Amino acid sequence: MATDQNKFQAIISHCKEYGFVFQSSEIYDGLSAVYDYGQNGAQLKKNIRDYWWKSMTQMHENIVGIDSAIFMHPTIWKASGHVDGFSDPMIDNKDSKKRYRVDHLIEAHAETLPEGNGDVLISKMNELLAADDLAGLKTLIETYNIQCAVSKTANWTDVRQFNLMFSTQLGSVTDEASEIYLRPETAQGIFVNFLNVQKTGRMKIPFGIAQVGKAFRNEIVARQFIFRMREFEQMEMQFFVRPGTQKEWFAYWKEERLKWHKSLGIDPDKYRFHVHDKLAFYADAAEDIEYEFPIGFKEVEGIHSRTDHDLSRHQEFSRKKMQYFDTEINQNYIPYVIETSIGLDRMFLLTICDAYVEEDLTKDGKEDSRVVMKLPAKLAPVKLAIFPLTKKDGLPEIGKELMDKCKSAFHCFYEEKDAIGRRYRRQDAIGTPFCVTIDHQTKEDGTVTIRYRDNMEQERIPMDKVKELVLNKINE
């Protein structure tokens, strides 16, 4: 699997330098695996979120959206299996005091072995994980003499399970407070509201419920920038179907979701499906959409056929019927569920990685280069930058007039200072697709120079056509 760590580090640096992503609490030396989105990152993230939300709730007549609370009744997490089963096997090196997720530790070692030997190691690990054989996993680590990357020793503790849910107290007095959890996923908020939405919305199966929201996991080995964080955002849709039709709907949503990714103009060759080797006991199909990041192919979205497991468990634990009466077949049943779950932060990182380009512009022996973010126009934080050529002769006033005309339709940026070339480069670096320069000719004939980010070509157009042109490109 080809990786490009240098490019990945360059992207991380670019994200900080141009206001996309900052280390959280940086002035206090930061907080591990927690990040803040800067002014450009927050807008890009919102644009991705809005594009997904529109594609789900506006473009599908039988899908509606909700926004459930982060705090939920603790029994929900018992019913969902998170209290008993949401854990990862961990191991500590006694010399470095560094903690590792066992599967990550073994996978990293497997990558250093010849291909056949590495595959054997991964196969043995998967068998032990499936059997919850923690002692066997430690023996496997010792057999292969897997060492800590920091201490270079193999002085390991026993392997033990570590629950990934954050817990907190609900109540004003500690002694009387009850323990609750920060949700580790958004899906359960949809399941427990299934009947509320179905009845109040008079929804008929098949129908879906979509949600975007924060989730929290106490990842011990959080890594790879914003790819794996402790606080992250999910975009999930649970699609409720008649039992027996789930395979057809699984195939439909698998195709539909890949189509959504391709609609962003991202290189389709960088996508692939990964079929799960081992299914959860309640599932009958599961595949991931993976993207080729500079750090290799990684999961971005999961499509899962979850049968009736979730609603059945909530019916059992709440003692409330979670059934649907299907008038077409005159029958009561607990619906089956097809889930599409995409990480918003991972989609943000995918978009950044796909857009980041370092271009050599050397011409006629004169060295030149630029870093450009070739973001889809519909997602770019700023759509149009407006540049008066000088700060005098009435050019700023014309620029502000164009700004006032366009800013209600899309995000604009106005700047007067520096040479025009420098202004262009700054906008290239944040991914602004169009720049307009207002010069003295504008005063004479009402035309402006519009520059296109990707090919740097320029053309003269009437100023009153700028808004229409940008809107057309955004909506393509």
TrEMBL record:
InterPro entries: aa-tRNA-synt_IIb (IPR002314), aa-tRNA-synth_II (IPR006195), aa-tRNA-synth_II/BPL/LPL (IPR045864), Anticodon-bd (IPR004154), Anticodon-bd_dom_sf (IPR036621), Gly-tRNA_synthase/POLG2 (IPR027031), Gly_tRNA_ligase_bac (IPR022961), GlyRS-like_core (IPR033731). It is found in: Cytoplasm. ATP binds at residues 217-219, 227-232, 299-300, 343-346. GO terms for biological process: diadenosine tetraphosphate biosynthetic process; glycyl-tRNA aminoacylation. It catalyses: tRNA(Gly) + glycine + ATP = glycyl-tRNA(Gly) + AMP + diphosphate. It is an enzyme of class 6 (ligase). Substrate binds at residues 101, 185, 232-236, 339-343. The keyword 4Fe-4S does not apply. Residues 165-388 form the Aminoacyl-transfer RNA synthetases class-II family profile domain. Its EC number is 6.1.1.14. The keyword Phosphoprotein does not apply. Gene3D superfamilies: 3.30.40.230, Anticodon-binding domain, Bira Bifunctional Protein, Domain 2. GO terms for cellular component: cytoplasm; extracellular exosome; microvesicle. Keywords: Aminoacyl-tRNA synthetase, ATP-binding, Cytoplasm, Ligase, Nucleotide-binding, Protein biosynthesis. GO terms for molecular function: ATP binding; bis(5'-nucleosyl)-tetraphosphatase (asymmetrical) activity; glycine-tRNA ligase activity. SUPFAM superfamilies: Class II aaRS ABD-related, Class II aaRS and biotin synthetases. Belongs to the class-II aminoacyl-tRNA synthetase family. Homodimer. Catalyzes the attachment of glycine to tRNA(Gly). This is Glycine--tRNA ligase. It comes from Chitinophaga pinensis (strain ATCC 43595 / DSM 2588 / LMG 13176 / NBRC 15968 / NCIMB 11800 / UQM 2034). The lineage of its organism: Bacteria, Pseudomonadati, Bacteroidota, Chitinophagia, Chitinophagales.
